[in-house]
C-alpha cells in the first residue's frame, strides 16, 4: 500500500512538473515581452554589435600638423606618418591655436607638433622629440596616433643610427639597427581588433542579462495576474517546490540551449571572429553557466513586483558587470571589494572562462577555477530558488486561508 502511494506521488510529481514546464513554455512564446527578451534580443543584439565593430580597427584617423621646423627631415617624418594606414594628415596649421580649433570642430582627432629645433638637434647629435595631442573621447584614436608615430620614429631612428655608425657591411648595419632582434606577434587576437577583444565578453553577458529580463518580466506578469499578487499561482499543480523549480528551469534551459549555440557559435562565425576552442569543451562549460544564470534570475525575480522593474535591473547592471569581470579593465587594478562583489554574478566566471576557451583554445582543465565556481553558484542559487518558491507557496496558502476565513465570517454575520 505504501509502495503504491509512493508511486502515485512520483507520478503526480512528474505530471505536475510537465504541466509547469508546458505552461512556462507557453508563456514564453505567448507573452510578447518575454519573447522579445528570450528570442529577439539574443538574435538581433549580437548582430548590431558585430556590424558596429566589423572593421575591428580604426584606420585613417584625421590629424593636423604644426610643423615649426619646416625642414626636409620633418617633411620626411610627416610623409611617412601620412603613409601609414592609421593616420591621414588633413591639414597643416600655422600654430597650435589653429590646430586646437580644428579639434574642437571635430575636423581632426589629433595634432602632431614638431618643434623648431627638430632637425637642428638631430644634426648636432642631440635628442629631439615630437609631441602628440589626441582627442581622448575615443581611445582608438589615441591608439592609432601613438602606433603610427612610434613606428615612424623607430624607423627613422634606425636610419640615423646606421648613417652615423660608419659600418662597412650590411651585417654590421643590421646589428646597429637591431642589437636585440625582436618579432611582434599578436597572439589570440591577430588583427589587434576591438571586436575580437570585446564581443566575446558581451555575448556571454548578453545571455545572463536577457535571462534576467525574460524571467523577471515573466515574474512581474505573474504577480500582476495572480489574485493575491504572489509569484506562485493558486493551482493544484503548483503545490511542490521542486516541481516548480525544475519545471520552470527546464523550460528556460531548453530555450537558451538553442539561443547559446546561435550567440556563441554562429555569430562569431558570421563576423569571422577568433574561434579556436573545442565545441565539446565549450558545451560542457556552458552547462553550469546556463544553470547558474537561470537559478540566479529565478532567485532575483522575487524582487520583481511589476513588468517594468526588470528593465531597471538590466540598464543599471550591464556596464558595471562588464567592467568588474576583469575583461575591459585589468583584474589586478580592480579594488578587492569589487572583485569579491563580482563573484556574486555568473557572468564574471562565464566571461573569463569563455574567452579563454574560445579565443585562447584552453581546455576544460585550464579553466578549472571558473568551471568549479559556476557549479558552486548553480548549487547555491538552486537552493535560494527553492527557498524563494517555498516561501511563495506558503504565502499563497496563507492568503487563501485568510480569504476563506473572511468568507466564513461574512457568512456567519
Write the topology of this structure:
Elements lengths: L1 H29 L1 H21 L8 E7 L4 H12 L3 E6 L3 H9 L5 E5 L3 H6 L7 E4 L4 H27 L4 H8 L16 H32 L15 H30 L8 H22 L8 H16 L11 H7 L3 H13 L9 H45 L1
Parallel strand pairs: 1-2, 1-3
Antiparallel strand pairs: 3-4
Helix pairs in contact: 1-2, 1-9, 2-8, 2-9, 6-7, 8-9, 8-10, 8-11, 8-13, 9-10, 9-14, 10-13, 10-14, 13-14
Summarize the structure.
This protein is mostly helical. 67% of the residues lie in helices and 5% in strands. It has 2 domains: 2-53 and 191-412, no CATH class; 61-177, abc type-2 transporter like fold, CATH 3.40.1710.
Description:
By secondary structure, the chain is mostly helical. The chain has two domains: 2-53 and 191-412, no CATH class; 61-177, 3-Layer(aba) Sandwich (abc type-2 transporter like fold), CATH 3.40.1710.10. It contains 14 helices and four strands. Strands 2-1-3-4 form a four-stranded mixed β-sheet, sandwiched between helices. Strand 1 (61-67), helix 3 (72-83) and strand 2 (87-92) form a beta-alpha-beta unit. Helix 8 (194-225) packs parallel to helix 10 and helix 13 (346-358) packs antiparallel against helix 14.
Question: What are its keywords?
Answer:
single chain, 413 residues, mainly alpha, abc type-2 transporter like fold, 2 domains, four-stranded mixed β-sheet, 14 helices, 67% helix, elongated
Topology pattern, helix = H, strand = E: HHEHEHEHEHHHHHHHHH
Overall tally of structural domains = 2
Order of strands in the sheet with the most strands?
2-1-3-4
What structural category do the secondary elements indicate?
Answer: mainly alpha
- The helix count comes to 14
Amount of beta strand = 5-15%
**Helix fraction bin:** 55-70%
* Strand elements, count: 4
**Ends distance:** 45 Å
What's the assembly state of these chains?
single chain
- Shape category: elongated
Amino acid at each position: 500500500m505504501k509502495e503504491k502511494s509512493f508511486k502515485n506521488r512520483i507520478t503526480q510529481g512528474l505530471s505536475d512538473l510537465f504541466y509547469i514546464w508546458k505552461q512556462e513554455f507557453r508563456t514564453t512564446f505567448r507573452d510578447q515581452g518575454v519573447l522579445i527578451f528570450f528570442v529577439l534580443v539574443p538574435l538581433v543584439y549580437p548582430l548590431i554589435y558585430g556590424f558596429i565593430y566589423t572593421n575591428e580597427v580604426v584606420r585613417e584617423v584625421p590629424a593636423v600638423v604644426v610643423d615649426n621646423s619646416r625642414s626636409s627631415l620633418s617633411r620626411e617624418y610627416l610623409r611617412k606618418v601620412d603613409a601609414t594606414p592609421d593616420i591621414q594628415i588633413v591639414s597643416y596649421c600655422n600654430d597650435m591655436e589653429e590646430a586646437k580649433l580644428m579639434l574642437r570642430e571635430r575636423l581632426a582627432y589629433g595634432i602632431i607638433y614638431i618643434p623648431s629645433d627638430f632637425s637642428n638637434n638631430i644634426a648636432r647629435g642631440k635628442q629631439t622629440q615630437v609631441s602628440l595631442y589626441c582627442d581622448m573621447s575615443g581611445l582608438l584614436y589615441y591608439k592609432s596616433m601613438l602606433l603610427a608615430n612610434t613606428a615612424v620614429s623607430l624607423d627613422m631612428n634606425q636610419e640615423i643610427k646606421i648613417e652615423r655608425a660608419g659600418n662597412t657591411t650590411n651585417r654590421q648595419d643590421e646589428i646597429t639597427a637591431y642589437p636585440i632582434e625582436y618579432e611582434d606577434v599578436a597572439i589570440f587576437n591577430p588583427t589587434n581588433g576591438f571586436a575580437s577583444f570585446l564581443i566575446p565578453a558581451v555575448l556571454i553577458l548578453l545571455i545572463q542579462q536577457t535571462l534576467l529580463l525574460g524571467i523577471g518580466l515573466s515574474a512581474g506578469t505573474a504577480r500582476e495576474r495572480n489574485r493575491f499578487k504572489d509569484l506562485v499561482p493558486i493551482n493544484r499543480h503548483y503545490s511542490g517546490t521542486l516541481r516548480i523549480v525544475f519545471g520552470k528551469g527546464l523550460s528556460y534551459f531548453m530555450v537558451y540551449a538553442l539561443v547559446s549555440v546561435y550567440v556563441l557559435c554562429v555569430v562569431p562565425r558570421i563576423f569571422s571572429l577568433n574561434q579556436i576552442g573545442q565545441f565539446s569543451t565549450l558545451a560542457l562549460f556552458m552547462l553550469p553557466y546556463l544553470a547558474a544564470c537561470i537559478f540566479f534570475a529565478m532567485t532575483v525575480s522575487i524582487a520583481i513586483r511589476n513588468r517594468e522593474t526588470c528593465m531597471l535591473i538590466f540598464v543599471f547592471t550591464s556596464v558595471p558587470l562588464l567592467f568588474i569581470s576583469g575583461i575591459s579593465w585589468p583584474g589586478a587594478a580592480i579594488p578587492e571589494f569589487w572583485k569579491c562583489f563580482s563573484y556574486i554574478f555568473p557572468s564574471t566566471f562565464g566571461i573569463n572562462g569563455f574567452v579563454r576557451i574560445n579565443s585562447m583554445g584552453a581546455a576544460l582543465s585550464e579553466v578549472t577555477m571558473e568551471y568549479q565556481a559556476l557549479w558552486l553558484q548553480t548549487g547555491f542559487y538552486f537552493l535560494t530558488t527553492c527557498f524563494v518558491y517555498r516561501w511563495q507557496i506558503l504565502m499563497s496558502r496563507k492568503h487563501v486561508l485568510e480569504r476563506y476565513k473572511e468568507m466564513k465570517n461574512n457568512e456567519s454575520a
